[in-house]
From TrEMBL:
Its cofactor is Mn(2+); Mg(2+). It is found in: Cytoplasm. Keywords: Amino-acid biosynthesis, Branched-chain amino acid biosynthesis, Cytoplasm, Leucine biosynthesis, Magnesium, Manganese, Metal-binding, NAD, Oxidoreductase. SUPFAM superfamilies: Isocitrate/Isopropylmalate dehydrogenase-like (SSF53659). Substrate binds at R97, R107, R135, D221. Catalyzes the oxidation of 3-carboxy-2-hydroxy-4-methylpentanoate (3-isopropylmalate) to 3-carboxy-4-methyl-2-oxopentanoate. The product decarboxylates to 4-methyl-2 oxopentanoate. GO terms for biological process: L-leucine biosynthetic process. It catalyses: (2R,3S)-3-isopropylmalate + NAD(+) = 4-methyl-2-oxopentanoate + CO2 + NADH. Residues 4-352 form the Isopropylmalate dehydrogenase-like domain. Homodimer. Its EC number is 1.1.1.85. This is 3-isopropylmalate dehydrogenase.
C-alpha cells in the first residue's frame, strides 16, 4: 500500500522520540512491503523561532495533504515561565486540532504485564486494567473566549459546548464500548457546570440507542479517585477536553509512565498520532526519554488511519518483547532493574526495531 506520512516532531523530547517512531514506520514498510513516503514540518517553539508562527500555513497544508501525521510534542520553558507571552507553542497544537477537526482523542491505557511493578500503584489493583479514554479535543474551556479586564487584574476563560459537539464524541465512545466490555463511563461535573449538564443530558438521550452498553455517570472528582482506587472498574470513558487532559495524565500511572501512553486524534480529516506527554524540558537533550509512547502512536496510526491491523500488532508485540527481555528506560525501571538493562532513547529504539 502507498501512503504519505507527515512527521511533526515539534519541541524538546518530541524530536527525540519521534525519530524512533519514524524508524518503526520505515521498518514496518520494509517488512510488509508497503511504500511509505515522508515529509517533515515545523510546529511549536521551533516554528516560532523559524517563522514567528507556532503553526505555519505550510505545516497545515502539508498535514492536510498527508494520509496521517506522526506528531511529537510542543512546549518550551521560555513560555511556561512567562505568562505575558502572546505567541506560545501550545497555540500551534490547539490550532492544528481545531483546523483539522480532530474532535476525538483516543487514549488507550493499557498496562503491559511486565510493567506491573513500575507503577506506584499496587500490582493486585492494577493487573488486568484496560481503559480506553475518549477525550473531546476541539471544544471546552481550551477554545472558548479568553481575556483580561481591569488593567489585567481580572482573567476569564469561557467553557462552552454545543449538543452537536457532545453527541459526536459520545457516539464514538458508545460504538467503541460495543466492541469491548460494553461499559461506558461518562465523566462530567454536572452538579456544578452548565456545560456538564448539557453533556449528561446528551449522553442520557443517546443511551437508549445502545441498549447493550451499560452507562454510568461520574463526577470528575470521584472519577479521579476511582481511577487509582480501582482502575479495573473502567472500560470506555468519555469526557470533556479539560477533564480528559488531566485524568489521562493521572491514568498514565496505571500504565507505568507518561512515556507509555499513545493517542490518536481523529475527526474530520487527516488523523494525528501523538504521545500524551509534552516536551519534558526536565529531560530534554539527555537521550533518556522513553520512545514507546511514540512507537505505540505509530501503531495506532497504522491501525486507525491505514487499517493495517497486522502491522500495528507487530509493533505492539515488538514493544512487549523488549519489555519481556527486561530492557527499560529510566522512567519504567524499578529497584530490581539491573543498571545495564536501563537504556537510552535510541538504544531501546534499536531493541524494538530488532524485534520487528
Ligand atoms: N501534547 C503536547 O505537546 C503537550 C505539551 N506540553 C508542554 O510540554 C512542556 C512540559 O510540560 P510538563 O507539564 O512537564 O509535562 P510533560 O508531559 O512534558 O512531562 C511531565 C513529566 O513526565 C516525564 N515524561 C514525559 N514524557 C516522558 C517520556 N517519554 N519518557 C520519560 N519521561 C517522560 C517528564 O520528564 C516530566 O517529569 C510544557 O511546555 C507544556 O505546555 C504538555 C503536555 C502535552
Ligand atoms: C497544550 C495542552 C492542551 C496539551 C496537553 O496537555 C494535551 O493535549 O494532553
Ligand atoms: Mg495533557
Amino acid at each position: 500500500m502507498k501512503k504519505h506520512i507527515l512527521i511533526v516532531p515539534g519541541d524538546g523530547i518530541g524530536q527525540e522520540v519521534t525519530a524512533v517512531g519514524k524508524k518503526v514506520l520505515e521498518k514496518i514498510a520494509e517488512k510488509f512491503n508497503h511504500e511509505f513516503t515522508y515529509d517533515e514540518a515545523l510546529i511549536g517553539h521551533e516554528a516560532i523561532e523559524a517563522t514567528g508562527n507556532p503553526l505555519p500555513d505550510e505545516t497545515l497544508e502539508k498535514m492536510r495533504a498527508s494520509d496521517a501525521v506522526l506528531f511529537g510534542a510542543v512546549g518550551h520553558p521560555k513560555y511556561d515561565n512567562d505568562p505575558s507571552a502572546k505567541v506560545r507553542p501550545e497555540q500551534g497544537l490547539l490550532k492544528m486540532r481545531k483546523e483539522l477537526g480532530l474532535y476525538a482523542n483516543l487514549r488507550p491505557i493499557k498496562l503491559f504485564d511486565e510493567l506491573l511493578s513500575a507503577s506506584s500503584i499496587k500490582p493486585e489493583i492494577l493487573q488486568g486494567s484496560d481503559i480506553l479514554f475518549f477525550r473531546e479535543l476541539t471544544g471546552d474551556i481550551y477554545f472558548g473566549e479568553k481575556g483580561r479586564k481591569d488593567d489585567g487584574n481580572y482573567a476569564y476563560d469561557i467553557a462552552a459546548y454545543s449538543k452537536y459537539e457532545v453527541e459526536r464524541i459520545a457516539r464514538r465512545a458508545f460504538e467503541a464500548a460495543r466492541t469491548r466490555r460494553k461499559k461506558l463511563c461518562s465523566v462530567d461535573k454536572a452538579n456544578v457546570l452548565e456545560t456538564s449538564r448539557l453533556w449528561r443530558e446528551v449522553v442520557q438521550a443517546l443511551a437508549p440507542e445502545y441498549p447493550d452498553v451499560e452507562v454510568e455517570h461520574l463526577f470528575v472528582d470521584a472519577a479521579a479517585m476511582m481511577l487509582i482506587k480501582n482502575p479495573k472498574r473502567f472500560d470506555v470513558v468519555v469526557t470533556a477536553n479539560l477533564f480528559g487532559d488531566i485524568l489521562t495524565d493521572e491514568a498514565s500511572q496505571i500504565a507505568g509512565s507518561m512515556g507509555m501512553l499513545a493517542s490518536a486524534s481523529v475527526g474530520d480529516s487527516t488523523g494525528v498520532y501523538e504521545p500524551i506527554h509534552g516536551s519534558a524540558h526536565d529531560i530534554t537533550g539527555q537521550g533518556v526519554a522513553n520512545p514507546m509512547a511514540s512507537v505505540l502512536s505509530a501503531a495506532l496510526l497504522l491501525d486507525i488511519s491505514f487499517g493495517m491491523k497486522q502491522e500495528a500488532e507487530a509493533v505492539i508485540a515488538a514493544v512487549d518483547q523488549v519489555l519481556k527481555a527486561g530492557f527499560r528506560t529510566g522512567d519504567i525501571a524499578d529497584a530490581s532493574t539491573p543498571k545495564d538493562m536501563i537504556l537510552g532513547t535510541e538504544a531501546i529504539g534499536e531493541e524494538i526495531l530488532r524485534r520487528l
